[in-house]
């Protein structure tokens, strides 16, 4: 084999091993906006979803942005027009405007009103909105009102005033979801968690300091870091008036089980969890717990699994909001190119956890 043939073979193998090539093969629209690829023989660059004839892998290069591809001497494809806003991006812009309209309204707008604002039919808007956010417009409005309630409660307002300010016509529906959202009654939340008992302990593991905390429902926090005091402050900042109780010998045994999970994350944690978050966050976290140990999933793939294929960025934010390290395995989520980023407790810890799951 001559030098040219060996070079071509090496380029083909490198491309086929790149996770981004799978998105190109599948013409995956969820990968649009994450990267573009260029083709040496044509001199153009395309979106991953481009319907043009598939290039030979040895002729393909990947670029983070259109600007990178153009600096490398490639011009945009006239068929998929990667330099223009994609359909997903246009939908995201429409949905962003609808979200702002919902947030600005005193009462949740009717679907027909929102559709008229967007210039779409109610059916189409409903479908696009759910695809981008993972929620229906009605569910988004309810979640926004719940956030307004929590803001008022944090400022010390009464529960009744908080519900009224958020635009709830009655308190019944809010109270139905308040416990799952807040992890306690609205009155206790307003009091900063007063009378809520949270047991906790701080120890050391191979990844540094670890804080484990539990409510009456189950483990509510597993935090990793370098500074034990910073972990304690993070827990205290969440509920400044909660009754924090240092762990006794019995609790230390529970902590030992969690530390064992960190040392060997593959088996998972067989303990009850107190998971608190929005409806969308909980959908993401539940999907994360179904990702097998030793495997990874991209943010876009995870978005598809929860039925919101265009909400990869929202999925990333939900992963970042996770306070149960390893138990809810957000370390198994990677970028479209397979790279590691965005881990709340540091990329090096993420890399080590994945290594431990794949070791023999």
Residues in helices, as a percent range = 40-55%
- Which structural class do you get from the secondary structure elements? alpha/beta
By DSSP (H or I, 4+ residues per run), the number of helices equals 16
What is the approximate shape? flat
User: Order of strands across the biggest sheet?
Assistant: 3-1-2-4
Keywords:
single chain, 360 residues, alpha/beta, 4-stranded mixed sheet, 16 helices, 48% helix, flat
Written overview of the protein:
Helix content is 48%, strand content 12%. A four-stranded mixed β-sheet has the order 3-1-2-4. The chain is α/β, with parallel strands linked by helices and 360 residues long. The radius of gyration is 24 Å and the shape is flat.
Short description:
It is built from 16 helices and ten strands. By secondary structure, it is of the alpha/beta class. The chain starts with a helix and ends with a helix.
SSE inventory with pairings:
Blueprint: H1 3-17, H2 19-26, E1 36-39, E2 44-46, E3 60-63, H3 66-71, E4 75-76, H4 87-104, H5 111-118, H6 122-133, H7 137-154, H8 159-165, H9 171-182, H10 186-190, E5 197-205, E6 208-214, E7 219-225, H11 228-238, E8 243-246, H12 249-263, H13 279-288, E9 297-298, H14 299-305, H15 312-321, E10 333-334, H16 347-358
Parallel strand pairs: 2-4, 5-8, 9-10
Antiparallel strand pairs: 1-2, 1-3, 5-6, 6-7
Helix pairs in contact: 4-6, 4-7, 5-6, 7-8, 13-15, 14-15
């Amino acid at each position: 084999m001559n030098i040219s043939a060996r070079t071509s073979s090496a380029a083909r193998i490198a491309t086929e091993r790149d996770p981004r090539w799978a998105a190109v093969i599948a013409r995956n629209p969820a990968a649009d906006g994450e990267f573009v690829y260029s083709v040496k023989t044509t001199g153009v660059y395309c979106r991953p979803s481009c319907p043009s004839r598939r290039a030979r892998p040895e002729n393909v290069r990947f670029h983070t942005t259109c600007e990178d591809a153009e600096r490398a001497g490639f011009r945009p494809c006239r068929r998929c027009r990667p330099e223009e806003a994609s359909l997903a991006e246009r939908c995201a812009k429409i949905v962003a405007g609808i979200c702002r309209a919902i947030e600005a309204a005193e009462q949740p707008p009717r679907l027909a009103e929102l559709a008229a604002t967007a210039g779409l039919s109610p059916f189409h808007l409903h479908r696009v909105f759910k695809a981008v956010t993972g929620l229906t417009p009605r569910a988004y409005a309810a979640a926004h009102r719940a956030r307004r309630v929590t803001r008022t409660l944090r400022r010390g307002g009464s529960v009744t005033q908080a519900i009224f300010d958020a635009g709830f016509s009655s308190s019944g529906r809010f109270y139905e979801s308040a416990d799952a959202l807040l992890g306690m009654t609205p009155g206790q939340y307003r009091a900063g968690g007063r009378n809520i008992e949270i047991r906790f302990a701080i120890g050391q593991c191979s990844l540094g300091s670890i804080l484990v905390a539990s409510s009456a429902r189950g483990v509510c926090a597993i935090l990793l870091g370098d500074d034990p005091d910073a972990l304690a402050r993070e827990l205290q900042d969440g509920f400044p008036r909660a009754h924090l109780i240092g762990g006794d010998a019995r609790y230390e045994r529970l902590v030992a089980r969690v530390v064992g999970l960190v040392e060997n994350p593959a088996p998972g944690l067989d303990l009850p969890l107190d998971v608190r978050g929005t409806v969308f966050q909980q959908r993401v976290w539940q999907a994360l717990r179904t990702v097998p140990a030793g495997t990874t999933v991209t943010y876009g793939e995870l978005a598809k699994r929860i039925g919101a294929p265009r909400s990869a960025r929202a999925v990333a934010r939900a992963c970042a909001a996770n306070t149960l390290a390893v138990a809810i395995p957000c370390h198994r989520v990677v970028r479209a190119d397979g790279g590691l980023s965005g881990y709340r407790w540091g990329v090096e810890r993420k890399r080590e956890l994945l290594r431990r799951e794949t070791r023999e």
